[in-house]
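tool=predict chain=A
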Amino acid sequence: MLARLRSPLGITAGVLLVLVAGAAVLAPLLLHARADAVAPAAILQGPSAAHPAGTDLLGRDILARVLVATRLSLLLALLATGLGVFVGLLLGTAPTLLGPALGRWVTAAINVAVAFPSLLLALFFAVIFGVGARGAVLAIGFATAPGFARLTHTMAATIAGRDFIAAARVAGVGSVRILLRHILPNIAEPLVVTATMSAGGALLAFASLSFLGLGVQAPSYDWGRLLGEGLAQIYIHPAGAVVPGIAVVLAAMAFNLSGEAVARVIGMRSSARTPGRAAAPATAVRPGREERKALLTVENLRVGFGDVTPVRGVSLALDRGEAVGIVGESGSGKSLTALAVAQLVERPGVVRADRLDLFGTDLREGARRAHRRMLGTSLAMVFQDPMTSLNPTQRVGRQLAEVVREHQRAGRRPAWRRAVDRLEAVRIPDAERRASQLPHEFSGGMRQRAMIGMGLMGEPQLIIADEPTTALDVTVQRQVLQLLAAIRADRELGLLFISHDVTVVGQVCDRVLVMYAGRIVEDLPTEALLHDARHPYTRALVAAVPDMDTDRDRPLAVIPGRPPDPHALPPGCAFAPRCPLATTTCREDDPPLAEYGNGRRVACWHADIAPVVVAPVELKGEVS
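tool=predict ok
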């Protein structure tokens, strides 16, 4: 970092800033009388020992006036920049605070304003706010705001989609707190760079308005006004216009070069901190059964985005102490189902269900604030990528403590002690020291365990784990799975485990729900998954996982074809184009999810013959 500051760019920027700042501080104190001294006998004199830049129409020293004007010029430019940054932040973060509906109108207004050059906007606002320094500050500030708002909105929208923001919402953190503690710290660095460089642009804009007579008015003067006064004599006495012009250029260069230097330092620091990738069965559960212990009951869940419905008719139930797995290919609706349960589907997504009960509370009704508090204390979510699940700018302990501080109004120290205790509970060594570290100082497995610890900060009854081991190597994966199993056994928690790996689900869960094209196609006990699955898709998923008996001389098995496009689902069974058992009935009529045996459900017209016709050993040799 110091090496970047000592580069030619950094040194040049530093020298210019020191010179400009020194002139702003010292010149009004030392040269004010000289700058205002009128000398009729010395009108429009050229450069001399007494007047290095000559004199103006009243015989006043031009260099002294330029140096004295530094303070007012910089002060007004910084005020305009500060106003532009403040208004830009308000506009840029408005969609986050106001929600998508009102946010779209704010975004549309920003886009319209950005289409106009900033100087044209400044002239427009100058007419509205009137002539003078105050009007010019307001004009330049509001003209600067749209560009800053556009940048803020773009970066805030990117951060708002990260997993750690979703985790904060699950924890019940409000929109304002999410903005102040999670979004703004992550976009602060580029905003600081932009603001620094905007100051140079504001300085030029202010000089332009004063030059046109819309800015500073007599008897006060800044560089733009001095430039305008000297322009009339530029052919007979060019120093009157050249010297203030040089001052404007040098000051603008100081701000712009400083912004470039800060950008390089921040870029180096960000690169340095970017981490590498780390490497007893329960009773069968079906909707409609006795639900005295049910933690989660979902009936006919549908999630739509306009005319597309990626989750259609999902029904499931989960008891205390039970682990239910959801498997399927990417795009089958697994994660979207979990997000709908956690109330994390944002507009334009629409969640509908005939029943959506969590811990005995109907999530379709009641106050959203009450639901948020309940979800924040009783539901824990563990996301796929532990690096994006934690805020990279905050200490791990502070992020964990935020949950109890938000919902239990705990003090800073009790919340910190509980965070350390939760890190110890998830087997992170030296938890006190680790709590004070940033996420990039953790390994991949430790970050995932920290995420589990965050979920345990309250008193969760249900853990939703959305592919929590995908980004981990097999050794760490086993440790995380063992940790989840131990926590579930110790606390009798419910576990909804989402994965595309049927082998992992078979190790962790009591029951398995197989999803395809947004609906459940099979619901069966784990012990029946490998050898008695009744849906051809389930059997194909099992066959696609290599084991110790897989013939290494033959290509790995795959499922022929591709999953259907949610925008254009085929008639009948969605799996029919890829199914070896498909008949005319399959292609015309979508089979219902019907009971098959004790505690099992399957959506297939040929469930009786699937184990015979679509044997796993045959699928393992199938190639497409």
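The chain has a mean pLDDT of 82. The first strand starts at residue 294 and ends at 305.
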